Amino acid sequence: MASDSTPPANAVNTAIDSVSVLSEDSRRRMFVFIRRAGRAVTRDEAAASVGISRKLAAFHLDKLVDAGLLRARYETPGGIRKVGRRPKVYEPTDAQISVSIPERRHELLADLLLDAVLTEGADENAAQAAVRAAERRGRRMGEAARDETRPGRLGPERGLTVCERLLDEYGYEPVRQAPTELRLRNCPFHPLTAKAPDLVCGMNHAFLAGYVNGLEVNGVRAVLAPEPGECCVRLGPSDTDRDDGGGPLARR
C-alpha cells in the first residue's frame, strides 16, 4: 500500500499501460523468462529465449523498462570482462499489476483490519477496533495532505475540491452533486461490503470522516447514505441531515 501522505496516482491507468505493454507475445514471453531466471539476463539470452534477433529483443526490453516492469543496468556476468563494453542486463522490478474496473481497494481494507488486530484494546471488540483504526488512518492522511498542500482555511466548496483528489485516486468515483455535496459512485470495497455491511461500511464511514477532519474542512461531514450500486458514504453540509430529495440520511 502507498504511504498515508502519498496515495497512488493514476494507479489504474498505470496498470492498464503495463497490461498493454505485455499484450505483445514476444515481449510477454521475455518478461516471463526474466522473472523466472532468478538473476539478471542479457539481451542475447532474452532474444534466444523467444527466438528473435538481438535488435528486436532490445526494442521490446526497453518497452518493458519504460513501463516499470524491468530495470536495466550494465554488468559483467561471470567475472571480469577485459575487452569491450559491459553488456546490458535486465531484471524484474517489484511492480505488481492489478486492474479492476471499477477500481477496488481490498488491500486498504486488509491493511486497516491488520492495524485493528495489532492495536485492539482490552476495552473494545474487534469491530470497534476496526472502526477506530479506519478513522485514525483517514485522519492521518488528511493531516498529511494538509501539511503538504498548506491550503489555509477550507470552506465546504474548496474543501470538497481538495477531498476529490483522494477520493478519485482511491476509486470512489466522486461526483459533485451540489456545490457543497459529493456523491461517491463506486464502492472500492465491493463485493466484500455485501458480506459484512455493518463492519465494512462503518470502517469506510470512519475512514472518510477521519480524512475530512484531518484535512480540517469546515462545514462538511461524512454521512452514511447508502444507494444501490454506490458507496454507502456521502460528503455533504454539516448543518443539515437531509438529502437532495428531502429524505433523512441514514446514520451509523
From TrEMBL:
Task: Outline the segment boundaries, as ranges, of region: Disordered.
Answer: 135-156
Q: Which residues form the signal peptide?
A: none
This protein's superkingdom? Bacteria
Q: Which ranges are annotated Basic and acidic residues under compositional bias?
A: 135-151
What the entry lists under Gene3D superfamilies is as follows:
Winged helix-like DNA-binding domain superfamily/Winged helix DNA-binding domain
Spell out the protein name for this chain.
Answer: Transcriptional regulator
